[in-house]
Write a structure and sequence with these properties.
Elements lengths: L24 H26 L5 H8 L5 H28 L3 H19 L8 H15 L3 H10 L3 H28 L8 E3 L4 E3 L4 H20 L23 H7 L5 H33 L3 H33 L1 H18 L10 E2 L10 H13 L17 E2 L13 H30 L5 H29 L1 H21 L7 H4 L6
Helix pairs in contact: 1-6, 1-7, 1-8, 3-4, 3-5, 3-6, 3-15, 4-5, 4-8, 6-15, 7-11, 7-14, 10-11, 10-14, 10-15, 10-16, 11-12, 11-14, 12-14, 12-16, 15-16
């Protein structure tokens, strides 16, 4: 008869002062197999988000002509709003039940929502609202990120934690790389693609990524059922047999778990995490509209080029994660987090428009509008005085390109040069992943050996709140005030976050270090 995990021979003989065995070799292998399944889940979750991110705007324009850039902000924000609501719920669930349960339920919700997104074209009216609902439920399913983070935090010792979190973030970044790559590869299907009218199916460059995301979700569920097992260890690496630890099971673990969590440090980490995701959500939301406005790219060009750019940023992020694993051992998480914030500040500062060259103006919408000839003539005269390139109405054919005339700032705001945009991408692509992994690694260490499901749920909800407000802020401020105001405000927010980090620097330390059970 096969032995249970508790009866397995003690092959791994690492011991602490009190003589307790860390874990058996079988437990060690099972624990790391389960952690790797969490890496896979995080990877597929980020693929599900990024696989459509560069095509949401053109798809929205295609299925519902009443949708504008402001509504785009709500569609992008819906994902994060759903995740914000779900994260604490899934986190609480994972504290009291096997983590497999909330993971499987959340992923199945995600699968169904991706199918709904792919069918957003099917209703005859209000299609943009169906897309909004679909993205909200995709985000609700992505609330399992809280469960993933709490599992990895609870299944690693303090020494293993930074490396494991960096690996998980690298998998997340890889998902952000391959998501746009999948989208880019699927552009060959074209905007029309193929249709199967019997089931109202349209398979094109916009819907195929959603169906692929649903397929990945099914694969993820199969791996979770087959491989994932429950594991928890304390900060020193000693195995915790159950979530509700009793004194009979391990009195030393109980003693090491005693003490209050520094709630001020917890709130600070949540604020910093909010800021980090808020500013990146703004950047990824307006990247497509910004490049279409500044460089007169078509919808297909914007999806293709931004997909390539995001993929390259993802590659850069993976290299940053690998570097962080080594640097953090010498400097600690707090120094790296501060450095990442300063790099992000530089990235957005570079995006501030300057010079006397202006973007091409999109005149196509005036063709059938009620704007009279006098107004059109005066606008043309004004644009000529500013040396703005104008797309003539009489020569207009096909898809309109350039900066829409409805955005009045297009007439007075200098163009953001492509070199500025690409340099900013490099800096933000370096600073964001560093800040991301350091913030929740530090957070997990502050929480210590206690169950982290609910706390990780609040952290994920904080990030989701940022991803909810960021796109709305971006769409409103960018649409009405332009890039100069948008990026200036972001620079101010990053500076305030850096000041907060400096003020709270001494309190952002690990639970076990705070109670002097482990040397920093």
């Amino acid at each position: 008869m096969a032995t249970t995990e508790e009866e397995a021979p003690l092959l791994k003989q690492e011991r602490y002062r009190d003589g307790t065995v860390v874990e058996t070799e079988d437990n060690f292998r099972s624990r790391w197999r389960s952690i790797r399944i969490m890496y896979l889940t995080m990877f597929l979750s980020s693929v599900g988000f990024s696989i459509v991110i560069t095509s949401i705007w053109p798809f929205l324009q295609k299925i519902d002509v009443t949708a504008d850039a402001s509504f785009l902000g709500w569609v992008v924000a819906a994902y994060s709003l759903g995740q914000m609501v779900a994260s604490p719920l899934f986190g609480l669930w994972s504290n009291h039940r096997p983590r497999r349960e909330p993971l499987i339920v959340s992923i199945l919700i995600n699968v169904a929502a991706n199918v709904l997104y792919a069918y957003a074209h099917a209703p005859s009216l209000h299609r943009k609202y169906y897309m909004l609902i679909a993205r909200a439920f995709v985000g609700f399913g992505a609330g399992n990120v809280a469960v993933v983070r709490s599992y990895v935090a609870g299944a690693t010792s303090l020494k293993e934690r930074t490396s494991a979190m960096a690996n998980m973030s690298a998998c997340q970044a890889l998902g952000f790389i391959l998501g746009p790559v999948f989208q880019t590869c699927l552009t060959f299907i074209g905007e029309n693609g193929v249709a199967w009218r019997a089931i109202a199916l349209e398979l094109n460059m916009y819907t195929a990524p959603a169906f692929l995301g649903a397929f990945f979700g099914v694969v993820n569920v199969i791996f979770i059922i087959a491989i994932l097992r429950e594991h928890r260890i304390d900060d020193l690496g000693r195995r915790i047999k159950s979530i509700n630890i009793s004194e009979e099971e391990d009195t030393q673990v109980v003693r090491d778990s005693q003490g209050d969590i520094d709630q001020t440090a917890v709130v600070t980490c949540n604020i910093l995490f909010f800021v980090i995701l808020f500013i990146f959500a703004i950047f990824e939301t307006i990247s497509t509209p910004l490049t279409m406005d500044m460089y007169a790219w078509t919808r297909k060009q914007a999806v293709l080029y931004n997909g390539i750019i995001l993929a390259l940023i993802g590659c850069e992020s993976i290299m940053a994660f690998m570097a962080v694993k080594m640097i953090a051992k010498r400097t600690g998480e707090r120094v790296i987090l501060l450095g990442g914030l300063l790099i992000i500040f530089a990235g957005f500062f570079i995006l501030l428009p300057w010079g006397n060259q202006f973007p091409s103006i999109q005149w196509a919408d005036l063709k059938n509008s009620s704007v009279n000839v006098t107004m059109e003539s005066s606008l043309k005269t004004f644009s000529n005085r500013l040396s703005i390139t104008v797309q003539p109405i009489q020569n207009y054919t096909g898809e309109p390109t350039g900066c829409p005339i409805e955005q009045q700032w297009c007439l007075t705001t200098p163009v953001i040069h492509l070199a500025q945009y690409l340099t900013s991408d490099v800096l933000i692509g370096l600073g964001y992943p560093v800040c991301n992994v350091m913030s929740y690694t530090l957070y997990s260490k502050i929480l210590g050996p206690k169950p982290q499901g609910v706390y990780m749920g609040w952290l994920t909800a904080s990030g989701s709140g940022a991803r909810t407000l960021g796109p709305v802020f971006a769409s409103q401020v960018y649409t009405h005030l332009g890039p100069r105001w948008t990026f200036s405000i972001i620079c101010g927010i990053v500076l305030l976050a850096s000041v907060l980090l400096g003020a709270m620097y001494k309190r952002l330390i690990a639970f076990s270090v705070r109670f002097q059970r482990i040397q920093e």
